[in-house]
Amino acid sequence: MRGTWLLMRRAVNEVIRVPGAAIPGIAAPTLFLLGLTAVFGKLTLLPGFSTNDFMAFILPVSVMQAATFSGAATGVNLARDIEQGWFDRLYVSPLSRTSLLAGHVFSASLRALMPIAVLIVVALLFGVDIQSVDGLLLAIAIAGAFAAAIACYSVILALRFRTQQAAPLMQAGGFMMVLFTTSYAPLELLSGWFQEVARYNPVRFILEGVRQMSVYGVDWGHTWKALVALAGLALFFGAFAMRGLMRAADA
Amino acid sequence: MTGGVGARLRPSPGLIANARVVGALSMRSLRQAFRRPQFLAPILIFPSLFLAVNVGGAGRATDIPAFPEVNGFLDFELAGAIVQSTMLAAVSGGIALALDIESGFMDRLIASPISRAAIVVGRLASTAVMGILAGIWFVSIGLIFGAEINGGVLGALLVIAMAAACAAAWGGFGAALALRSGTASVVQGIFPIVFVIIFLSSAFFPSNLLLEPAKSVSDWNPMSFIAEGIRDPIISDISATPVLEGIAAIAGLMALGAALSVWGLRKRLAG
User: Fold this and answer.
1) Which residues constitute the domain of residue A157?
2) CA gap B107, B100 in Å, rounded
3) How many CA within 13 A on the CB side of residue B185?
4) Model confidence, pTM
5) Averaging pLDDT over each range in A130-134, B134-138, B235-239, which range is the top one?
6) Helix or strand holding residue B141 (H, E)
7) Which of A12, A76, A211, B151 could be bridged to B238 by S-S, CB 3.0 to 4.6 A?
8) CB–CB of A46 and B61 under 8 A?
9) Contact A30, A63 (CB under 8 A)
10) What kind and span of H or E run contains A73?
11) Radius of gyration from C-alpha coordinates of chain A
């Protein structure tokens, strides 16, 4: 536990000591929140759209995007540690492999809190109605856990490619998982094959779970699906990340 | 007699030499782009994925009463994907130029007996070729997934030509930034600005359906005129006004980008 906590603190220290490094992770989701609202805001005119406030609908997408970038940053930092040899030192330390992985992926959850907080403040300034405090807290918890799942995904890539040049793959992979869902419109209003992809994409359930804060309000139907999808995703990526860590010893 | 009409029309040896340099540098830039997927992916893959998300996610937008008459939302979005791709090509070109400066390759070029302008023009020519590639790519994707090019073959060629010119025009800004800053990370930092310019234009959605202040900004944003110019041959027969407005916007940007590049090059040589 102590090893995990120290690794998490190290990741947070990086943000505190180099605040400029956190700017892209905050600016990009905020830009998309404002930009997509300005461009696609009139989609709410479509019959069957679940809200008349597009920013309230798209805010959870930006929150998930922020979580994705935080998760990807974990993989990029790990790749940097591998390039610089720091990871080798961690590897020969008496730290268990589970603590090593947990320290890295949970740091993503912590780091995601800052951009998520900024996004929520921006949304409030633009008049988005947050449904309830418990919905807001639940959304933050789900997004934080999603950041950890994406961190597992980016750890897999970092251990596989062992270079920071894999960063676009880490960022774009998670971002596309979020976008190929009900990101722009409710499922019934999506078109063709995209609707089928969104229907079976597990990230849709996680997104709908986060959307409880600004659109639906908290209900068990959305919550349990989000939690199951999260658990599945975390187990899937976590298992492969752990396997990668075990194999890294032989590399 | 050596000064006949034929001799006067024959290009000077200096011009031929410069054209060769531009060709060689442009080929080098293209090879770089194709050898490094991290340069190519933002130009083709990301805009394609955004195109898929926009069309799949917002495809029913054509049901909104004020939406212009189109065969489908994909037809409308193709122009947006093309301008996005050309802007990203320009940024990638700028990054590659900055990497040349960082690695010292630019200094070797400057020390060699070639025209300084040819160094920048070579880079812009390769960006224009990437624009052609983007145009062909998105027209092909559109046709494969059911879009119609109402302007026919001529319309498709016009779209590709405008994509090339648009890439070269924005390439001037990327080159200017690279020459002025000399670092790839600074050029890379303008990626978000690409999205700001596009979000504040009618590239992805009709201007009349944008929310304020994007709607007002889009009416003056040159990117709106370029997107409308590229879109026109796709969604209707070729009409003079949007196409000429698009060409004028590209020409204006190209002149400004070229002026900034010359200024950046002069500052670099002076520094």
Assistant:
1) 2-248
2) 9
3) 2
4) 0.82
5) B134-138
6) helix B116-144
7) B151
8) yes
9) no
10) helix A54-84
11) 18
DSSP string across A204-226: HHHHHHHGGGTTT---HHHHHHH
The kind and range of the H/E element at A163 are: none
Which residues of chain A have a CB within 8 Å of the CB of B38? 165, 168
**Structure tokens given for B45:** 């893959």
Domain boundaries, chain B: 25-270
Cα-Cα-Cα-Cα dihedral of A205, A208, A210, A212, to 10°? Answer: -140
- Express each pLDDT in B154-188 by its tens digit: 999 999 999 999 999 999 998 888 888 877 777 77
Q: How far apart are CA A212 and CA A202, in angstroms?
A: 16
Q: Minimal Cα–Cα distance from A48 to chain B, Å? A: 11
Do B38 and A168 make contact, defined as CB atoms within 8 angstroms?
yes
* Model confidence pLDDT, tens digit, residues A200-210: 999 999 999 99
Tens digit of pLDDT for each residue in B65-118? 888 888 889 999 999 999 999 998 888 888 888 888 888 888 787 777 777 777
Q: Mind telling me how many Å the CA of B219 is from chain A's nearest CA?
A: 14
Interacting residues of B220 by C-beta distance below 8 A, sequence separation 6+ = none
Beta-carbon-side half-sphere exposure of residue B39 (alpha carbons within 13 Å) = 22
Of A32, A189, A193, the CB nearest to B60: A189
Tokens of A91: 């590897």
